[in-house]
Amino acid sequence: MSTTTKDIDISTFQSDFEARSLDMICINESRQQHPWWYNFKYMAVGMLFGIVFIKAEIISWFRIQEMFRLQSFHMYGVIGTAVIVGMISVWLIKKFNIKTIHGEKIEFHPKKFNKGQIYGALIFGLGWALTGACPGPLFAQIGTGSLVVLVVLLSAIAGTWTYGYFREKLPH
Q: Transmembrane residues, as ranges (predicted)?
C-alpha cells in the first residue's frame, strides 16, 4: 500500500469501522523484494522451533493439562521465560536501535486495548485447555504423527474464517 502510518491520524476517523480498518494495514511490512527461496530460512527456523517444542515437551497434551490444573510449573516456566526473553529483546532493540537483517528500522506501535481482547483470550484459553494445543505447537504435533491434531488445525482455520466473516458485528 502507498499509505504510510505517518499519513494516518486515527482521530480523524468518524467511525469505529474506519479505525478498525487500519488493522489491515501491515505497518511493519518490508519494502524490499527478495527471491522466493529466501523463505527457506523461515522454514528452517520453524523446524528448529518445532524440535525445541518437542524436546521441551511443550507440545505434550499431558503437560498442558497439568498447567491448566495447576499441577506443574513446567509450562508456566516456559511461558514466563518467553515473556522475559521478549521483554529483554524489545528493550535491546529500542536501546541500541537494532535493525532487521536487511538493514530496515524496527518500529513499535502502541495498540489500544478493547474488551474484544478479553473475549478472544477466553475463547483461545478454552480451546487450548480442551484440545491441548495452541497455534504454535499444532504443526509440531502433526509432525510427530498425531494426525488427530489435523481436526484441531482445521477447527482453528474455521474459527479464524468465522471471526473474519463476523468481524464487523463483534464487539471491539
A: 40-61, 73-93, 118-140, 146-166
With 0-12 / 13-18 / 19 or more C-beta atoms within 10 angstroms meaning exposed / middle / buried, residue 89 is exposed
Residues 90-122 as b or e (16 or more Cβ within 10 Å = b): eeeeeeeeeeeeeeeeeeeeeeeeeeeeeeeee
Looking at the chain, the number of H-run helices and the number of E-run strands are: 7, 0
Distance CA 172, CA 163 (A): 12
The 10s digit of each residue's pLDDT in 16-25 is 555 555 555 5
Instruction: Look up residue 3 and give its amino acid.
Output: T
Separation of alpha carbons 60 and 83, rounded Å: 20
**Does the pLDDT value for residue 3 go beyond 50?**
no
Note the pLDDT tens digit of each residue in 101-160.
888 888 888 888 888 889 889 988 898 888 888 888 888 999 899 899 999 999 999 988
Query: Could you count the other beta carbons within 10 Å of the beta carbon of residue 74?
Result: 16
Which of these, 9, 8, 4, lies nearest to 26 by C-alpha position?
Answer: 4
